[in-house]
């Protein structure tokens, strides 16, 4: 029997998501030395997903707490989680928190936080407001702001290909040239995809220009504690801006808690007054209600359990140092292997960049050749996830990279 309808005939086939398609291709590959450095998820030195020991403890505490039930959470989320999330990013001595000028609502991980913030700004600042994203940035940023209805989503200069570092002058030039009151998306730490972060002094200069132009700072923080192993250091930029201006910060607990599939996040907001904070919170709740009704509990309970218990918090900090330390070790091992091979070019940026990702400097043709010739799966912009490297595959990766640099232009 054939359905006599044409309701969906005009719907085109959408292209697959690049990262998830890359992972699927890696899984289908039977090559013994295949390597996946495309996916942004932590792996241990055996290349396996790692459940943080402190998360295992928190899970057991939750499962064995028979006072808990499966009732709906409030629209704004689990209060013990959102208050702890705001305290984590802003600091326990934050003037905004102590003066009740900051609020947080639970979201579907960091992606949901960015989307909720974008929807709010589209409604209350208008879709004609210019949105500036770093060039390059996380691919989903542009899709989110476009989908939220913004008409002018553009780039600001960030990465300097020649130095493989920050192009501060270019960034400041673009911020000064942007219309007053633009929305500027900033990476709080461990910039994705480059791994290039401004120094504290550079952040101060960026803030000066932002405030002079009355731009709105929208931070995306997916790697607090995971980037450097120091929670306070990774929050430096957000905390500095919060002393000077209103802002949004999208927080993800996927990486630093390993809760990738629990989709646990928060949108934390700093405003100028307690009254403004409550008004913003009420509108975020209204938007969230229409989008997801209310958020899931389990991941939020895990994070809340850890952040609100001194002993578990200390153990979590130790787990963070394990993850960030292994990534730093892989940076050192890769750099040393390339030096030993005499690979053409300077590779100091591998050590200078921070966080999960490194921008290798490979072009699209070279990145593709890494896959076709050596079964190394990476994105075409040359970004690699350092967590995909292990003690057993880093030499193979370095040798492959060396061959590509010498033979593919």
From TrEMBL:
Which CDD domains has this protein been placed in?
A: AAT_like (cd00609)
Q: One of this protein's GO BP terms?
A: aspartate biosynthetic process
Domain Aminotransferase class I/classII large stretches: 33-401
Q: EC number(s) for this protein?
A: 2.6.1.1
Family annotation (InterPro entries): Aminotransferase_I/II_large, Asp_trans, PyrdxlP-dep_Trfase, PyrdxlP-dep_Trfase_major, PyrdxlP-dep_Trfase_small
Q: What is the name of the protein in this document?
A: aspartate transaminase
Q: Which cofactor does it need?
A: pyridoxal 5'-phosphate
Which keywords accompany this UniProt record? Answer: Aminotransferase, Pyridoxal phosphate, Transferase
UniProt cross-references to PANTHER family, sorted A to Z: ASPARTATE AMINOTRANSFERASE (PTHR11879), GLUTAMATE OXALOACETATE TRANSAMINASE 1, ISOFORM B (PTHR11879:SF55)
The uppermost taxa in this organism's lineage are:
Eukaryota, Fungi, Fungi incertae sedis, Blastocladiomycota, Blastocladiomycetes
The entry sums up its family as follows:
Belongs to the class-I pyridoxal-phosphate-dependent aminotransferase family.
Q: Name one GO cellular component term.
A: cytosol
In alphabetical order, the GO MF annotations are:
L-aspartate:2-oxoglutarate aminotransferase activity; pyridoxal phosphate binding
- Subunit and partners: Homodimer.
């Amino acid at each position: 029997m054939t359905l006599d309808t044409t309701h969906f005939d005009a719907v085109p086939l959408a292209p697959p998501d690049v990262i998830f398609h890359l992972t699927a291709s890696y899984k289908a590959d039977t090559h013994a030395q295949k390597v996946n450095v495309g996916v942004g998820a932590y792996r241990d030195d055996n290349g396996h997903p790692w459940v943080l020991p402190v998360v295992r403890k928190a899970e057991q505490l939750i499962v064995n707490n028979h006072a808990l039930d499966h009732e709906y959470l409030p629209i704004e989320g689990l209060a013990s989680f959102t208050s702890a999330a705001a305290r984590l990013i802003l600091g326990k001595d934050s003037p905004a928190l102590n003066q009740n000028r900051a609020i947080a609502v639970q979201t579907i991980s960091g992606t949901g936080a960015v989307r909720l913030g974008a929807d709010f700004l589209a409604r209350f600042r208008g879709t004609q407001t210019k949105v500036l994203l770093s060039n390059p940035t996380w691919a989903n940023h542009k899709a989110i702001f476009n989908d939220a209805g913004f008409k002018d989503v553009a780039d600001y200069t960030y990465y300097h290909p020649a130095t493989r570092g920050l192009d501060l002058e270019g960034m400041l030039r673009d911020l000064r040239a942007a219309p007053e009151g633009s929305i500027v998306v900033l990476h709080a730490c461990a910039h994705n995809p480059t791994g290039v972060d401004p120094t504290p002094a550079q952040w101060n200069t960026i803030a000066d220009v932002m405030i002079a132009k009355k731009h709105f700072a929208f931070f995306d923080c997916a790697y607090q504690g995971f980037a450097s192993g120091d929670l306070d250091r990774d929050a430096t930029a957000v905390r500095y801006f919060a002393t000077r201006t209103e802002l949004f910060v999208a927080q993800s607990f996927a990486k630093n808690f390993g809760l990738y599939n629990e989709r646990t996040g928060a949108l934390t907001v700093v405003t100028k007054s307690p009254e403004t904070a409550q008004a913003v919170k009420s509108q975020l709740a209204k938007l969230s209600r229409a989008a997801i009704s209310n958020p899931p509990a389990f991941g939020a309970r895990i994070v809340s359990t850890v952040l609100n218990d001194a002993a578990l918090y200390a153990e979590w900090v130790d787990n963070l140092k394990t993850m960030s330390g292994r990534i730093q070790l892989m940076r050192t091992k890769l750099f040393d292997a390339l030096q030993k091979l005499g690979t053409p070019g300077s590779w100091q940026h591998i050590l200078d960049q921070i966080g999960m990702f490194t921008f290798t400097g490979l072009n699209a043709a070279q990145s593709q050749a890494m896959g076709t010739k050596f079964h190394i799966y990476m994105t075409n912009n040359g970004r690699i996830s350092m967590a995909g490297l292990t003690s057993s595959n880093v030499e193979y990766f370095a040798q492959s990279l060396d061959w590509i640099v010498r033979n593919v232009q």
